[in-house]
Specification:
- The structure holds two protein chains of two kinds.
- Chain A contains ten helices and ten strands.
- Chain A is α/β, with parallel strands linked by helices.
- In chain A, strand 1 (27-33), helix 2 (37-51) and strand 2 (54-60) form a beta-alpha-beta unit.
- In chain A, helix 2 (37-51) packs across helix 9 and helix 2 runs antiparallel to helix 10 (236-244).
- In chain B, 75% of the residues lie in helices and 0% in strands.
- Chain B has eleven helices and no strands.
- Chain B is globular and about 65 Å long.
- Classes of the chains: A alpha/beta, B mainly alpha.
- Chains A and B meet through helix 3 and strand 7 of A and helix 3 and helix 10 of B.
């Protein structure tokens, strides 16, 4: 009896806490492509400070997030690592058509923890390493870009036996970071502000531009916090953060 | 079945290979451990039993994380890989075997230990009075009596290795023909919206799991009847 009463009291307290924290600000659930993890966290913090709204972030590969959204995942915004999936979501009737815009232009980098290991395309042509990490090219746009660059350099066939695939770009980074793969293609944003190791910024002529699009999902239509987040993402504060992480921004924004 | 990718069966073959090798190693490794756990009277043996059983409780991510460190270039796995000029045991079939052995160990050791314990002291004492050496008593008395335990352990070890996912995802690197096992292939197909392929493999797994559990139950029933 006594225990039951205590439990009930506890529930009331929890519910009261939840309700009061939601009274003045709203939450919005954002699906974020893994390469944008660090930048998104910083943007969400700035967003919260400015508006009081909370952006709840979920990370994964663009392909994984897309699949989840088609299966009714409770996301209100998607920050993809490509344009194809946001476009497809619009075509599927799962996203708001005119809400799509490019929030960042990704840059591909070949990175190693070891000093002087990466010296440009010559490193790939020499092939003096045992494992090269890339993200899963069918699910992660940075993986597709890595394959495109390898093909443009005509080393894809020879290096293929050495390729290991991360499930998304974050896992790819971790493969290289733990030293299990000597080098790997990752997003520049992942090593922004980290001077260690050796790197080669892959020339943008070697792979199709990684235009990363954001889109408002149907579940977020009419949600004030979701609209505010997208507006904030277009604004100068967010843009400064995005550029700080090594992304390009679309200056010809329509 | 038009348009099926030709490599859809490769993960199946690889998974069967991995599970078979893992089960074999676990029977060789697990039997002495199970025997010791069943017969020893030292006070710290339950601590060893607990270590063996821990993968039952730990999330696969914990195992995957530590395996990645241990197998990697800065761990003992990297040193072993150095023997044949490689840098790491991660992303290799051998690495997966090591991971699977740790991960499926309790499923093999536990049933065998129980079977050994159920024999009790009597049959072995009788064997000893008939002047059988301990080794002979083990092979001609204990092992045959514990056969149901071996069978259960082998089936569970095999099945559990087939059902492994988190550890493989973390230490595998998704390499076709070497670390891309069934569960990872299904995940891959789902992630990339190839649902027909995912369906074929997943439905196969459902049938497999059903068959394994049903046959386990039938074996146990038969053993129980035979023992009565």
């Amino acid at each position: 009896m006594k225990l039951g009463g205590l439990l009930r009291l506890g529930f009331v307290a929890i519910i009261a806490a939840l309700v009061s924290s939601n009274a003045d600000a709203a939450d919005t659930n954002v699906a974020v492509a893994a390469n944008f993890t660090d930048a998104a966290k910083e943007i969400a913090a700035a967003f919260k400070q400015k508006t009081g709204h909370q952006a709840v972030l979920s990370f994964g590969s663009s392909g994984q997030l897309y699949t989840q959204i088609t299966q009714d995942a409770p996301f209100q915004i998607m920050l993809s690592a490509d344009q194809a999936r946001p476009k497809k979501l619009v075509a599927d009737g799962l996203a708001v058509a005119d809400s799509r815009f490019t929030y960042a232009i990704g840059k591909l980098v070949l990175w190693s923890k070891t000093k002087d290991l990466v010296k440009g395309e010559a490193t790939l042509k020499a092939g003096a390493f045992s494992k090269l990490a890339i993200a899963n090219p069918t699910a992660a746009p940075y993986g597709a870009a890595a394959v495109a660059a390898l093909k443009a350099l005509k080393v894809y066939e020879t290096l293929q036996p050495k390729i290991v695939q991360g499930n998304n770009i974050a896992q790819t980074f971790q493969f290289v970071d733990t030293g299990n793969a000597e080098l790997g293609f990752i997003a520049l944003s992942q090593i922004a502000g980290e001077p260690s190791g050796s790197r080669w910024l892959v020339p943008q002529t070697l792979y199709p531009p990684i235009r990363q699009d954001a889109v408002l999902l149907k579940k977020g239509a009419g949600n004030a916090a979701a609209a505010a987040f997208l507006a904030f993402l277009k604004g100068p504060e967010a843009r400064a953060i995005i550029e700080k992480y090594g992304y390009g921004v679309d200056t010809s924004r329509s | 079945m038009q348009g099926l990718p030709p490599d859809i069966w490769q993960p199946v073959r690889l998974t069967v290979e991995l599970a078979a090798i893992t089960t074999l190693i676990l029977l060789l490794l697990g039997t002495p451990i199970a025997w010791w756990l069943a017969r020893s009277k030292v006070w710290w043996k339950e601590a060893v039993a607990t270590l063996v059983a821990m993968p039952l409780v730990l999330p696969p991510t914990v195992l995957g994380f530590y395996l990645l460190v241990v197998l990697g270039p800065n761990g003992p796995g990297g040193a072993i890989a150095g023997l044949w000029g490689a840098r790491t045991l991660a992303f290799t079939f051998e690495g997966l075997v090591i991971g699977s052995v740790v991960y499926s160990m309790p499923f093999v050791v536990q049933p065998i230990r129980n079977a050994f314990a159920a024999i009790g002291d009597r049959p072995l004492e009788v064997a000893a009075t008939l002047r059988a050496s301990p080794a002979r008593a083990f092979w001609t008395v204990a092992v045959p009596l514990a056969r149901p335990g071996f069978l259960t352990g082998a089936v569970l070890g095999f099945a559990h290795t087939v059902g492994e996912f988190g550890v493989v995802l973390m230490i595998g690197g998704n390499i076709p023909g070497s670390t891309k096992v069934l569960s990872v292939a299904i995940y891959d197909y789902v992630e990339t919206s190839q649902w027909r392929e995912a369906n074929i493999l997943a439905a196969g797994m459902v049938v497999f799991a059903f068959a394994v559990i049903l046959s386990m139950t039938l074996i146990e029933k038969r053993v129980a009847r035979g023992g009565a």
